[in-house]
Amino acid sequence: TMELSVLLLLALITGLLILLARGHPKAHGHLPPGPRPLPFFGSLLQMDRRGLLKSFLRLRDKYGDVFTVYLGPRPVVILCGAEAIREALVDQAEAFSGRGKIAVIDQVFQGYGVVFANGERWKALRRFSLVTMRDFGMASGVWRGMVKEKPDSVIEKDQGALQDPTLIFHSITANIICSIVFGRRFAYRDPDFLKLLDMFYQSFALISSFSSQVFELFSDFLKYFPGTHRQIYRNMQEVKDFIGHSVEKHRETLDPNAPRDFIDTYLLRMDKEKSHPNSEFHHQNLINTVLSLFFAGTETTSTTLRYGFLLMLKYPHIAEKVHKEIDQVIGSHRPPALDDRAKMPYTDAVIHEIQRFGDLIPIGVPHVVIKDTKFRGYIIPKDTEVYPILNSALFDSRYFDTPDTFNPNHFLDANGELKKNEAFIPFSLGKRICLGEGIARAELFLFFTTILQNFSVASPVAPEDIDLTPRECGVGKLPPVYQIRFLSR
């Protein structure tokens, strides 16, 4: 790749100039140990060409569960394994509650919206989002509507056609978020809806790409050049325009006595706080919060389902046992309901294992410490970034017998009942735990069981030849592209 070599050469020259100008990096606080950084380039020499996750796991072998890496010029504390992550995010929840940046999308959010906000802004938006999502999500009829819309209405009518399931899973998950946020569902053939989904899908792949990981190291310098960050920015601006138009329409038809959805509720709160000069309920936070919920709520669940069905194709005996449990507990005459989950430990264990093995956000979303923080005998200075490596908990051999194998027994006790596991933290932990966790778990259960109640799945590839190697593994982990047949049962 020509542009990459040119960029690296430029980076080298600039680096050398900065090096001459600056001398050696000064010691920060009393950070955990780690490889000795070069000025400007940081720990570049210790980085693995296969990306950040592989680099961190390799350094863990040398430095243990808690160490410091320099991503370019800035120090980042890396936490590995379920215990270190829990000690930081739960036992010292407040200190570790800040949100760090992800370089390629920093331009998009700029610290606004519930996911990337900090301080009072974050607290206000999170409280509001949790209550409002609950009112229009779990507590409303959104689930009844969802199950009414049987997946067979989305899955191609021509029985058994080979298809890439990406769009199916995208549409059904996006429509849940759409009904909560926009108060409407989209027709599956709606061109605006399809375009929106495509933007999300492409952006998640770009954010997780190798070049975005290089950008994470040298964003101050690389942001002046073309690259994936510009494509992501363009995509996200388009989604923001879409949200903006929707907000205008909501504004024109707003009824203060009957808010229809998240946007209405937010607009009413905005009106209420109009006279507060420091209110966080303004337009900028609305657009970015909706973007966050939309992106986080669509991409994650649909990617997990995509991994899940690939795993069902690879392990047909597991799919068979799920079919059996569905037939015993639900039968074929009614759609699955959330109450069924408690009576279906095997299916629930399979879904847990799909989430563990799918490892959707392997390096976690960055945190920062909001004050100088003592941790395991070190001192982490205020505003230092901290990466909780969720992958290292989900694959922690102290908690899972066969971490590298897909094995639902990880979540079953001797009696075949569901068992909790401390290292199962796909939604992260602490004050920044995913605010859509309840909705996501409900969606995964209902979609997974509804599809398998109605269909069996088949692959053009023999199970032993199905490759599970991810297509991208950066901020997110994406399953490989594959083809599937849905056959009516």
Automatic annotation (TrEMBL):
Swiss-Prot/TrEMBL keywords: Endoplasmic reticulum, Heme, Iron, Membrane, Metal-binding, Microsome, Monooxygenase, Oxidoreductase, Signal
GO molecular function, one term: testosterone 16-alpha-hydroxylase activity
Database matches in InterPro entries: Cyt_P450, Cyt_P450_CS, Cyt_P450_E_grp-I, Cyt_P450_E_grp-I_CYP2B-like, Cyt_P450_sf, Cytochrome_P450_fam2
Domain of life (superkingdom): Eukaryota
GO biological process terms held by the UniProt record: epoxygenase P450 pathway; ketone metabolic process; steroid metabolic process; xenobiotic catabolic process
Membrane topology, record value: Peripheral membrane protein
Cellular compartment(s): Endoplasmic reticulum membrane; Microsome membrane
SUPFAM superfamilies: Cytochrome P450
One of the record's GO cellular component terms: endoplasmic reticulum membrane
Signal peptide: 1-23
Cofactor(s) needed by this chain: heme
One Pfam match: p450
PANTHER family hit by this protein: CYTOCHROME P450 2B6 (PTHR24300:SF406), CYTOCHROME P450 508A4-RELATED (PTHR24300)
Family, as annotated: Belongs to the cytochrome P450 family.
Record-given protein name: Cytochrome P450 family 2 subfamily B member 6
Annotated organism of origin: Myotis lucifugus
GN (gene name): CYP2B6
